[in-house]
Amino acid sequence: MEEKIKKLESFVEALKGANLNEDFAAQINYFNHHEAVRTLRTEQHKHAYSAHLVASGLLEVIKKILDQKADPINHWGNNTTRLMVLMQNLLYNGSEEIGRAVIQVDLHLTFLNCMRDKSVYELPTSESEERVFRLLCCCYNEMRSYPDSRLVLRKAGLVELCTHYMHVGSNDNRLTNELLFVLSYAADLDANPDALKATQFNLVYIHSILQESLQDSDHNSSIGFSAADILACILRLVKNADNAETLIPKGLVDTCNKAIVSHKNEQELQLGLETLWTLAFQKSAAEIIIANTLLIDTIKTMKKHHSEDVKAAASGILFQLNVDQPQSGQQKVSEDPEEQHVMISYCWKQKEVARELSEKFKQSGKKVWIDIEKMEGNILERMAEAIENASVIICCYSEDYKNSQACRSEAEYAFRLKKQVIYVKTQPDFAPNGWLGIMMGNALYYEIPDMSSVEEKLPEVLGRVHSIEGGTNSKSGGAATSAQTTVQVAKELEFFSWTESQVREWLHSIGMQLSDKAEKRNFDGEMLKELRGWQKECPMFFLECCKDLVVSSSPIDALRLGLELKKIK
Known about the structure:
Elements: H1 2-17, H2 25-40, H3 43-55, H4 58-67, H5 72-76, H6 78-93, H7 96-104, H8 107-116, H9 126-145, H10 149-156, H11 158-168, H12 173-186, H13 194-198, H14 203-215, H15 227-237, H16 241-247, H17 252-261, H18 266-279, H19 283-291, H20 293-302, H21 308-321, E1 341-345, H22 351-363, E2 368-369, H23 379-388, E3 390-397, H24 399-403, H25 405-416, E4 421-425, H26 434-440, E5 445-447, H27 454-469, H28 478-492, H29 500-509, H30 516-520, H31 525-537, H32 539-549, H33 555-567
Parallel strand pairs: 1-2, 1-3, 3-4, 4-5
Helix pairs in contact: 1-2, 2-6, 3-7, 6-9, 7-9, 8-9, 9-12, 11-12, 14-15, 14-17, 15-18, 17-18, 18-21, 20-21, 23-25, 27-28, 28-29, 31-32, 32-33
């Protein structure tokens, strides 16, 4: 290993002082193929060598070379492409540490700026197509090796660049294919459903390439992607319901079945099962899977696989299809408030905020159920029991939460049982969309993007929990008690003397939220008294007022609000 590190350091020093003329090509090629790639492909050296690559300053040197000229592509000629191939291979074969370092030194911005360069922007030559292809490979491998870079690249404009190049068009099929795969990673297809339509994205084509790869003895396709790579792409795509419904009639369930049965490696098996799990949320796919008894039997056997990820995916499919699962209601559900708990639903990436909320809830006297250590075994069965015995569920949501099959199974099961859910937004720039957007509607949420926000928002969240529980947990203290006191005092006063905040608390206590419009008009007890009068005198006007008063008001909400108003003296 020492000899390899010396060669790495020598290469970096040579790169710093090189003019990058054609004579330097041999050094780049030798280091790329004989040193870096071979070493990174050796599992025992991967992580250590990746760390040395980052520490050597190689990424900064490559960035400096590409940033030196306004027209870096033409200035450095073919050696620029060779450096891009080097970066492509480092990201593909190296550990996550290289991908993280690319973001830290802003090399990803250099990749995108090179794609914006006037010398390649309209793809005037085959050389420009080759260079854009290599830059896209770098971006794809960056997202593949370091998933957190996906949002960073999206914010930096990668989706818009891909859309541009798809519209420009190319005779190089490799470039077109790479654009499709990069878009599948970078774009949020629920937030931007037209992105792929606008670029004439061909879902059926990607599916056909997967089918082709499964015919190959090594499960490799003619476009250079393995079956596992293509399955990963399709898995991301079918998380958008429209894409799923496009591919289900084309036989995607059967294709996944073939990948599962004939898998060449564990990754392919896991991705095949995860794709089926995602499809199982669509009624049309669920019916196809259930009708295939051999496939169901295969999935059942995968519950005994040695890989926890494979077992989780297999269990998830069967849970979603309600196959080989205890029927709802068979589990012992406690009706004693003292035996119920607050359940925290979250994805692993937001574990710090979720765990901090859990600790704070426990300190206030709340009984909490949370999966702290990634449960093994039949996770979803235990999750179902936790939901059934929950007095309220805290949903810590984000884009990763929306894209998680397990989180979706949790959320939909809670919705089916009509459980009370408090939404906590853990990603500042994410607006709920897709299935999560439909489920949430205009529901109230609390924004807690990081650990520092927990203390600030905790009293509000605890107060909301206590309001839902109806003050049954006598151990609850702190902010929860003060929230309960606010509502209680308000009810003891003549309601027409309520302040705006007391009206807001009362609405919270019955599961409603004061609208922005009502807040701007300082909706207080006097106005609430007037509203109650209109309920009897002019029901249609009362209904219209309800739409302005509370968030997401429906005729059912108006009816419930009317009933609650009658209870106030």
